[in-house]
Design a protein that fits this description.
With 179 residues, this protein is of the alpha+beta class. It contains six helices and four strands, in the order H-H-H-H-E-E-H-H-E-E. The longest helix has 25 residues.
């Protein structure tokens, strides 16, 4: 069977268009962070929004206003969390994972790579993507809180001030964590 009733098709078109418009408006109201690169919390909210939208579209048991309220709730919670990250710095360690060095001073930090479940090939790929030919030319590779790998070559290191607040950076003399 292609469809149950014409009413169901019309409902999907009407509710789908309205829900899409509401989601676009809410996204504009709640700002760019809703569309930013995702940390774990943002990913959960995005997946939940998609689930709510699908439920509103496909289930006649979920009224449009119930779905709209659910979307508003999710985006409001995301906004509150974002506000706490800005205004209460101590909340960052609870909500967002810390960046982790995977390469330091040209050396793979294999223990950290295992902890973060990152293969050496992934690190090498990130290094190649920057146009750097050898790991010895890399000051640091950092697994960021959004899952991206940032590569800082020795020539780009400058003062290294962007690396100062990371936890667990090995000292140059320790060597305890390198391959």
């Amino acid at each position: 069977m292609w469809f149950d009733s014409t009413f169901d098709l019309v409902r999907i078109l009407a509710v789908g268009g309205s829900a899409y418009l509401a989601l676009v408006i809410l996204t504009r109201i709640f700002g760019k962070r809703t569309l930013a690169k995702l940390n774990a919390f943002d990913l959960v909210v995005t997946v939940a929004l998609g689930s709510v939208l699908a439920s509103v579209l496909l289930s006649s048991d979920v009224a449009f206003l119930e779905g709209l309220l659910a979307m508003l709730l999710l985006m409001s919670v995301q906004w509150l969390v974002a506000q706490s990250l800005v205004r209460l710095p101590w909340t960052r360690s609870i909500i967002v994972s810390e960046p982790t060095a995977l390469v330091w001073d040209g050396q793979l930090l294999t223990a950290r790579m295992r902890e973060q479940r990152i293969a050496e090939a992934e690190v090498q790929q990130a290094i190649r993507r920057t146009g750097t030919g050898g790991i010895e030319d890399v000051a640091a590779v950092v697994l960021e809180s959004d899952g991206q790998l940032s590569v800082i070559s020795r020539s780009q290191l400058g003062s290294g001030s962007t690396l100062e607040n990371m936890t667990g950076i090995p000292t140059h003399n320790s060597g305890h964590d390198v391959a």
